Amino acid sequence: MWLDVKIMNATVFSKAEFPRLLAQTKQKQLQWLRHVHRMEDGHIPKDSCMDDLRIDGRGCEDYRHIEIETDVVSNTSGSARVKILLECGGNLSDAISIAVKAALHNTRIPKVRVLEDDEGSKEIELSDDPYDCIRLNVENVPCVITLSKIGYRHVVDATSQEEACCMASLLVSVTRKGTITCFRKVGGGSLDPASIFEMLETGNRVGKALHESLQTTLEKEESLGRKRQKVGFLG
Length: 235
Prior knowledge:
This protein is of the alpha+beta class and 235 residues long. It has helices spanning 9-15, 18-38, 44-50, 92-106, 160-164, 193-222, and strands spanning 67-70, 80-83, 108-110, 112-116, 122-126, 133-135, 143-150, 153-156, 168-174, 180-186.
């Protein structure tokens, strides 16, 4: 016999002691920060914090290597693939926004002409030239920058280890001109207003740099024209 019993999320969290798990995670984060603070100069974790560097050698505002390919889906117009190392951490929202903008930049809408003969009948004519098309203007399409708050710092493109120490993250949507279209806080921790303003400024700065780098890559690939090698989606 099936009983339609509804259990609130708060009840599930309470029985699973979820608030206690969050408190323990936060306590471990604070313990690690205090441990780093007590370290002598010369230790890698402390030097990385002081020199604005991370364990993998990147700065707090640096992304890892990202590969972008367009025309990855056969017989379509407007497709892109972004290669990142998500198994080593990383932000899915950032990758999706990059892929969407690259695909829209790659989209070509065929020009359609309506011809009318002497008898007044009309027919649709489609050009045989695949490059006789209309391009979309992606100038104002934003990219998402995810900033992860770790202690008193915030970083972009966090690794899995950094995500484990992250108290909360801020997703910032930025256009190429630096206009912030929206932002959203995610995670169980809290962010004070001063931190939010700092993270928005960082997101604005990183977002503009990301747009410029993405535009340069897309223009370089497009300059190859018909010589560009096309690969299948599974290739």
